[in-house]
Amino acid sequence: MKKIILIMIVLMVLCGGAWFVWRYENSSKTASGAQSNTSGVPATTPGFNKKQYSLTDPTSIWIIVNKQHPLSPKNYAPSDLVVPSVPLRVPGNESMEVRQVTATALQTMFASAKAQRINLMLASGYRSYSYQVSLYNGYIQTQGQATADTQSARPGYSEHQTGLAADLEPVSRTCEVEQCFAGTPEGKWLVANAYKYGFLIRYSADKVAVTGYEYEPWHVRYIGTALSGEMHQEGIETLEEFFGVSGGPNYAG
Asked: Which domains are assigned to the chain?
């Protein structure tokens, strides 16, 4: 009987030791894995499909338009332009239109902002190809082409032509389309909340070399909540970096 009890004690000790070794090895692997994940850019959430929408089709909400990637055709015009039910800077002007999907998101975002005493206004939305020609030529005449190219897209290279981009400002028109907008309550609210409604602040202060444009805290781009949420989670600020698409300060060709 004593031998049986002794054998059982030995087995229990051995099993306990084996369990401890297994636990230690697995906890070490977990810690090692967690440490390695902090060394680089966070991985895309498993299951997120980067190919869900086209990056070149002008009707796609993920279309990438920059100095390397113009719209095709160059005179593209969305078929579902509407005037959103939000405060408008220039009622009656074509630039108060956006695509339906953008309008719906803007209306939801503006309503949420207003509930928090943040009053936003649409400063500019859709810009047709012909409107861009007139606008761009005006910038060249007053500022010269080099400066114009840092502040305004050439005709056919503008996100505004997609109907998915919008310039926003306070209803008070404080810092209207100026970089100081970032310091206003409206600008700060937009930084903290735009992604929740499917928008991306397209031209960040530290990404001029990537996007080719100066910091524009007022310029938002609709990309849908799935993508905006993913980019926010990963801490990636530009579409170019997220999708590995070329951008840069110079125009293609």
From this structure: 81-243 (3.30.1380.10)
Spatial contact of 205 and 164, defined as CB atoms under 8 Å apart: no
For the stretch 88-137, pLDDT in tens is 999 999 999 999 999 999 999 999 999 999 999 999 999 999 999 998 88
Q: Would you call 122 helix, strand, or coil by DSSP?
A: strand
Cβ neighbours of 131 (radius 10 Å): 17
Q: Which two tokens stand for residue 163?
A: 């109907």
Alpha helices in 100-235 (DSSP H): 100-115, 129-143, 145-151, 185-193, 208-211, 225-234
Round to whole Å and give the CA distance between 50 and 67. Answer: 22
Q: What is the pLDDT of residues 195-211, one digit of tens each?
A: 999 999 999 999 999 99
Buried b / exposed e across 147-163, counting CB within 10 Å, b at 16+?
A: ebbeebbbbbbbbbbbb
- Whether 242 contacts 226, CB under 8 Å: no
Q: What percent of the chain clears pLDDT 70, i.e. is strictly above it?
A: 82
Total residue length of the chain: 253
